[in-house]
Sugar transferase (Streptomyces lunalinharesii), 516 residues
Amino acid sequence: MATDFPVPRAYGKTCEPTDDLGGSVQQGELGGPLLLARGRPENGATNRPAADWEQRYRRNVITSDTVSTAVVATAIGNFFGARDAANWHEKWGILAFGTELLVLGMLAVTRSWAPAVLGQGAEEFRRLGRSLFTATVVLALGGIALASRNIKLWIFVAVPTIALVTMTARYLLRLSLHRQRKEGRCLRPVLAAGSPDTVRDLIARTRKFPHLGWRVDAVCTTDGRGIDGDQLDEVPVVGRLTDVAGHVHRDGYRVVAVTPDPHWSPDRLQRLAWNLEGSDAEMVVAPVLMEVAGPRLHVDAVLGIPLLRVSMPTFTGGHRAVKEVVDRMGAAILLMLFAPLMVLVGLLVLVDSRGGAFYRQRRVGKDGREFTIVKFRTMVAGADRARAALADRNEGAGLLFKLRRDPRVTRVGTVLRRYSIDELPQLFNVLTGSMSLVGPRPPLPEESAAYGPDIRRRLLVKPGLTGLWQISGRSDLPWEEAVRLDLRYVEDWSLALDAVILWKTLRAVLQGQGAY
């Protein structure tokens, strides 16, 4: 099943901006989906070149991929060739050189070096993974065709190593870029065009997430005025919505962010896209939809009319089966790795205060079924009974009860909570199938009883050991934001999103932000 929403003809047909309509759909990390339409030059028009930092960053990524692939292929080729020195050049040398050319060729074909995907979002790593997978298939088929006995060993050693090294190198480059963006550098100048309220929300989001690389430098509104006269949250209002294209051509903004406003009819949006031709600006439109993004969004041409197609969320099927397998295997591996630490923590909890090492509590899981969650005890014995006396000091958002300086928390418990070590026993819940490695926060029965129909959608999937709430501030999040993140995960779940969340959880845990 799918739901169709008409969108202006300025937008394209697939998730790649290469079709004849020139558009694309992109995951909106600032919240919700974004429709992109690049300005295309008219005959004789010259695009404004990309900023120096963009060109430099792309060169660094290409150099990193090339050097990483060459070094890994050569090193593994030398390792295997050391045992077969007589045929090193004939076998392993040619195989190493061919693998390097194949991997770099696949990176170019899948547009893994496109500036639009570098430095943010999961799409960069998705394309990198797709390139390496395709290279693996081609190598395997080549080995079968040539009846090579060396290709199997090579594929299972060389390609995974190349993947690990290139992805690590790209992640380090991304960290450096994000660090510069937080310092106010390497940002794309944005002209926001829409109603004052929606533009204001966009400005707040870009300031909250500077690592995404947007800086709203100017605003256009219907009447050319902002809430604060000629400014909107300290950003100058430079004109009306009818003046957008002129300001872009004159001042060279890299992004035109169109936010909801009654002025934007399909014809006006189409005309704006045409007027941006000849510039290097990227037109980004936030459609008035529910918060859906990622793999569920597609733009299809039906009967000559571009339609934004929103497919139904997937709660069953092959991808869910893969998630189940990954959850169980991942939990088993992590339990074996953390077993010594868990034994040590259990002993410290017993020595620090009276009571058992573990704390058990009823929580609500998938489809509203209750289960018992297991954690290391971080509070004194009988802490639940003392909660009523602390109700007037509650600092938690919404239905949550939280205290930054909870007198019931033990000395050891303070450290365990800060680094989320108290949650390690929940791996047993993942192993037995009541929880997942990634998912919404598992609520208490009294919390879920107060859920409305919309918030109850959190219970359509298994709760997680970590999730978007974990990497976005945890207990520091407002209740509405925590709910929004959980619902976004339920609606837009994918294996790639799970991988990104797991990767970012490590940093969130080490920083201890929002953990108390």
Q: What stands out?
A: The chain has a mean pLDDT of 79.
